[in-house]
Amino acid sequence: MTTVQKTEFLKYSHSIGLSTMTGRGFYYPVDTAFDGEGKIYTVSRSLDGDNRGLRVTIYDVYSNYYDMFGEYGEGDGQFIWPTAIARDSAGNTYVACEYLNRIVRFDSAGDPLPSWGETGSAEGELDGPSGLAVDADDNIYVVDHHNNRVQKFTASGQFLSSFGSSGEGDAQFDLPWGIDIDAEGDIYIADWRNDRVQKFSADGEFIAAYGESGRGDGQFHRPASVSVDDEGFIYVADWGNERVQVLDSDGAFVQNLRGEATDSKWADAFLEINIEEAAARAGANLEKTDIEFFNDDPHEESSHIEKFFWAPTSVKLDSEGRVYVTESNRHRIQIYARG
Questions:
Q1: Which terminus of the chain has fewer CB atoms gathered within 10 Å of its CB, N or C?
Q2: pLDDT at 194 over 70
């Protein structure tokens, strides 16, 4: 009898990243977007109270670094606590800032455009914008975290519509976070504290909910991000479980990713110059699987085993179907491709 080995749905490709305050690298990155022409945009949040690393880094899948834009502050082109990034068909970039409760905009060259957004709970006002998505008409969807709703705006910030309310039922949210829009215009929301993903029509009508609270396959603990591919497969950054899960279009479990990071090209270049650090790293145990106090706690495991995800805040797909996991606490992106 011959045993056939099933191919993994996603296979690890490589990592990109380096902890830096400026230039090539990231400093507590939180989200990633693409321009459709091969360039990647990752926004770094930095540490609360330390504004040196705030920026958007531009690079490509081959680890070529191009530029950066954005900075700390309250003016146009500035942010304080960025949470999400998105781009429209004209090449404009949008960054959500949960401290200022506004959407910061840049043109295709990275130069500031007028920002928009006001603090509050009325229509068109924001309280902790945490997720961004752009539809086929370049309308901007904002996950309004503390108001437990999703709002739709024009590119210039004119309010169009909203859906959702506070609660645990269908079409209700408890601190929602990530968002994606599929090829049919349906909307997926990572319902953070309700430990699930909800699916809506383009008009905000409830369609389905996927997942429940837990650590098993198809269960979530504080999902932070969701993306959907052209075949309907759903990718979820299961932040509280330190993993990424893949579901099929009906919400059935497909695959669980825990992280397989290797050194990035940026890190290799750094270690070639910093010989003492390279020597210390070469002698370190980066997979401390024998630590007794793990107790199956994914946070403890991730903090001690370097290849694992540690704070996967975002999962995004490029035009080639590659999966990018923005991993905040290790200042890197892990990239996967279909097996």
A1: N
A2: yes
Give residue-wise pLDDT tens across range 27-41: 999 999 999 899 999
- Rounded Cα distance between 166 and 148, Å, is 5
- How far is Cα 200 from Cα 237, in angstroms, rounded to an integer? 19
Place of tokens 């942010």: 79
pLDDT for the residue numbered 294: 67
State how far the Cα of 74 lies from the Cα of 76, in Å rounded to an integer: 7
Cα–Cα distance measured from residue 181 to residue 183, given in angstroms and rounded to the nearest whole number: 7
Q: Report how far residue 12's alpha carbon sits from residue 269's, in angstroms, rounded to the nearest whole number.
A: 21
Amino acid at 111: D
**pLDDT above 70 coverage of the chain, percent:** 96
Q: Which residue type sits at 203?
A: D
Pairing of strands 234-238, 323-327: unpaired
The per-residue pLDDT for 281 is 83
Half-sphere exposure of 63 (CA within 13 A, CB side): 17
Q: Which residues contact 301 (CB under 8 A, 6 or more apart)?
A: 242, 294, 308
- For 164, the token pair is 């959702």
Residue 292 to residue 33: CA distance in whole angstroms: 39
In the structure encoding, which two tokens stand for residue 100, read together? 């200022």
